[in-house]
Amino acid sequence: MLHTSPPKTPKFLHLHAVVEELAGFGAKIQLCSRNEVELNKCLEEWRIKGFNVTSSVCDVTSTEQRLKLMHDVSSVFDGKLNILVCFTLLDKFVVFRFSIWSVL
């Protein structure tokens, strides 16, 4: 899973490249973002390229949204996600406890 802000801006272009690199190796990728419009644009581009990328709208600073995300990801990937990568802007300090991520 990648969490990102709009990846087409120069500051986040490398995140877009990370998704394409991993998907090119056949990885199953879950992407989450707070920006549904940008997320859908990226998903369409990756579907055209044949990449296996799914998505969720999520603000990882919200415990409730993180828990829902983990449940959704676990369901989509039958508990077998290849990689979990979380890129966030550090405008807020967020503590992720192992118990939250262990639901995968």
What does the model show?
InterPro entries: NAD(P)-bd_dom_sf (IPR036291), SDR_fam (IPR002347), TR (IPR045000). GO terms for molecular function: oxidoreductase activity. Keywords: NADP, Oxidoreductase. By secondary structure, the chain is an alpha/beta fold. The chain starts with a strand and ends with a helix. The chain is 41% helix and 12% strand. Strands 1-2-3 form a three-stranded parallel sheet, with helices on both faces. The protein has helices at 13-24, 36-48, 63-76, 98-101, and strands spanning 2-3, 29-33, 53-57. Helix 1 links the parallel strand 1 (2-3) and strand 2 (29-33). It is built from four helices and three strands, in the order βαβαβαα.
SS field, number of helical segments = 4
Give Rg in angstroms: 13 Å
Number of strands: 3
Judged by helices, strands and strand pairing, the structural class is alpha/beta
Terminal CA distance reads 11 Å
Mind summarizing the main beta sheet?
Answer: 3 strands, parallel
Strand order of the largest sheet: 1-2-3
User: Average pLDDT across residues?
Assistant: 75
Overall form: globular
Please provide the ordered H/E string of secondary-structure elements. Answer: EHEHEHH
Low-confidence parts lasting 5 or more residues at pLDDT below 50? 3-7
Query: Helicity, in percent?
Result: 40-55%
| Share of residues in strands | 5-15%
